[in-house]
Amino acid sequence: MGCFVMLWSILLTLGSVRLPGGGFRQGNAREPDAPARQVQIRPFRIDRTEVSISTFEAWAELGYQVRDPWSAEGWAWAQEHPGGAGPELRAAGREPTHPVVAVTWYEAEAYCRAQGGGLPTEAQWEYAACGDGSRRYPWGDSEDVDVAWYSYGKHGQVPGVDTWPVDQQRPELRSPHGLLHTAGNVWEWTADWYHRDGTQGDAVDPTGPSEGTWRVLKGGSYTSLPSYCACAHREPAEPDRVAFTTGFRCAYPDDQPTGEQVGEEPSP
Ligand SMILES: [Ca+2]
To answer: Above pLDDT 70, what percent of the chain?
Structure first.
């Protein structure tokens, strides 16, 4: 069992990218709750992809019964909601390579902690998604591209849970660090509490307000207009929210010895 857990952990680490750290511009004047500021980030690792249905369910078989990775609040939630929304709703009729949805912030946090990491801070997520902050979307500023966001026109409807597999995206649409689907596909939980004034002032590795009512979601989803998928856009959500539009990816400290893969430096 121990060997299996270690092997699984190594495989997951191989799916992560090491970001070198540095300065970047977080926020954007277009976002009323995200004024631009200069942020310094220390090196860290982050998943290249959103967490898939298959990797989440591999953890979920035992994950809801093992106390260790859960926060006190999360464990209390898990006792009231055994197994969360359940595998059927989390899959929502899709193939296992698609992103898991219908997971609360508590489950996302416990999953990431069980892998030796945690949810990315909002600043880490934004740096990983858009590099130095000079672009509106991971690839640049164009909205005329084929992304898993809402583009059906005025009267179009979203046909169910309309995600793409987590590991399929054209290279030119990936983030400067090589991450897939940071914009669109599913919203992604971050570690931070949301406050509308929560990202003011230059900072070093900011972790957001110390308490709050909502957690910060980033990146928009297959139901979102492009403006919601912009790197700087932030969305509040109660931590126990269950939504077919919401998943996550994990971040890890920079001291893990395996699977070295250095992300590209942000564009100058
Ligand atoms: Ca996403």
So the answer is: 90
Degrees to nearest 5, angle at CA 109 with 104 and 115: 130
pTM, two decimal places: 0.90
What spacing in Å lies between the alpha carbon of 2 and ligand 1's midpoint? 32
Q: 117: pLDDT confidence band, cut at 50, 70 and 90?
A: very high
Residue 13 above 60 pLDDT? Answer: no
> Which contacts of 24-27 are long-range, i.e. CB under 8 A and separated by 24 or more positions?
24/126, 24/127, 24/131, 24/132, 24/133, 24/266, 25/132, 25/133, 25/134, 26/123, 26/126, 26/127, 26/133, 26/199, 26/232, 27/133, 27/199, 27/232
Ligand 1 center–CA 30 separation, angstroms? 20
Q: What is the distance in A from the centroid of ligand 1 to the CA of 3?
A: 32
Domains of the chain are 2-262 (3.90.1580.10)
**Ligand 1 midpoint to CA 143 (Å):** 16
The pLDDT score that the predictor gives to residue 265 is 46
